[in-house]
Input
Amino acid sequence: MTELRVHADPLESLLERAEEARLCGDYRTGAAFARQGVAVAGTPAGRARALRSLANQQLRLGELEDSVRACRDSISILEELGDDAGICWDQTALAFAYSELGLFEEALDELNRARDLALKCGDRGLLYWVHNRAGVVHSTMGNYHQGNTLLLQALELSTDMDAEARFCILNNLADNAVGLLRAQGSTAQNKAEPILMAALGHAEQALELARAASHPFRTAMSLDNLAMVLGLAGRFPEAFAAVEQSRQLSVERGYRSLELSALLNVARVHRLAGDAEKAIDGLVEVLARVGAVGEKPLMMTAHKELCDAYEQNGDFRRALEHYRSYHEMEQEARSDVAAARARLMTHHFELDHARLEADNARLEAELHRVRSHELELRTVELDRYAHEDSLTGLANRRWADLTVPQLLAAAEQADAPFTIAIADIDRFKGVNDDFGHLIGDEVLRHVAAVLRAGLAEPAFVARLGGEEFVIVLPGAEPDAALARCDTLRTLVSAYDWASVCAGLTVTISMGVAGRGSGDNYRDLLDAADTGLYEAKRTGRDRVVPAAPRTRVLSGS
Output
């Protein structure tokens, strides 16, 4: 191992080395550097960064409860600092660890909170990771269709992200597709099925990215997934070659869990090829190997696969033996989950107690600060209320009427493109009538959050009033503006509205207008309103462009 680089802050050097080790798949070395970082961190923010690094390394090492504790400790610090983006990052990692521990309810609760923070921050990268992790949790639970929906949403959000994020979503889509196709009983006879073809593309792209990054852990993992997809496609020689490469790389690098997964997939491919005897021999070897090291989840899987293989081979007595062993281990797994939950609850209580003491210590100082700055705070609040919509937190119409004409004038002077859109919630009166005005207010808040999260500066959204929003896209060419608006429309319709109220669905319609020579703000609003009217007239839940013309009042 090379010497640490010289930094003014030793924490920076340690975290840099931890990240280098992680990117090379050397998680044990990375965890050691991260632990040193926790010990030397001189500020709360630095300690939180070191804890996050440690938690991510521990996830890959299988030190799941330690990873949960590190995530929670980091979140506790970041809550004190008011770092919503940092909290969201840690919540996605925490959800991953919960899921691997079998604590699926906790994982989904954490991701729901992370989603709200990502929307509040308006950060597409955070939204990507929330959707990605949620898709993986549902896949782990066996909810492959829901997992696929969430992962495809994450794929759409990943277009501008780095190679690591692209690898992650492509590999997860391939893995989820394997579960989905196996659950459907897919065979080589239906290899032209679109899901299978898409899975092959995702698995091959993931492998290409892993190799380009010279990352052995990702390479072994993606080869393992590719092998199963090839097996489901009936391309057995290629499947066996891929899984053998995964196994050899895992042995060389000491990736025990990936080595065992490769051995398991060899047996699965033999079953797909119709060779039950070889499948059984391989599964017996897997069971012996995992039993020696106590890998309970893999042991359960091996018993279940052996049950199915013996049944396929007509040996019902042995099939029943493994069926019973599987269900005995399933009961043990439930007990293990309960024990893990109890241990982690103790840590949660300790954090709550420490937070309460810190809150009490700060109370008097906070009261003094608020009183001494009361006049200043009132002034700030009055300014905010004058320009902010109190329900959604967006800029209000007053602010838009002052600001957009200035931006439009600058675009006119520079002869630059400038586009606005009017978005209107479809059948919003029906939402209020059917679900009540409180739910209607929640719909307005969530639509506002989704629109804000789907835009990057200098674009922004303001509330015009009622259920109407104006979206301003300075510098956006017409085609790019239409594409961005259609993405916003899709994000709204794909949002989990059932989490707001059971039975609720929400869509928006949009009219889009680009700047013409001499146009003023009112001209653009009238033109966009014309497009909105056409979107409503032709069926709603769509985006319609309109050239600047005489204003036509929109319907609802």
User: Anything to note?
Assistant: Residues 549-556 have pLDDT under 50 and may be disordered. The CA atoms of residues 402 and 503 lie 39 Å apart.
